[in-house]
Amino acid sequence: MSKISVKGKDIHKVYQFLTQKSKNGLKDSEVESNFQKYLINEKGQLEKVISPQVLPTDASIVNWING
Known about the structure:
- By secondary structure, the protein is of the alpha+beta class.
- It is built from 3 helices and 2 strands; from the N terminus they run ααββα.
- Strands 1-2 form a two-stranded antiparallel ribbon.
- A hairpin with a 5-residue loop joins strand 1 and strand 2 (46-50).
């Protein structure tokens, strides 16, 4: 994958979906850093936006993955 824009006028379609409630149906958000986490379910729906400060091994993420 090549470098893409996550903000601004040339924001990539993936990040338009992840950050715009009108497209993802969940919430508006901003990319805080490259450690921002977006949890997408098996239907392709955005379920959670998780702060970059939360570790990938945090119980909230692990429990979501394990269902």
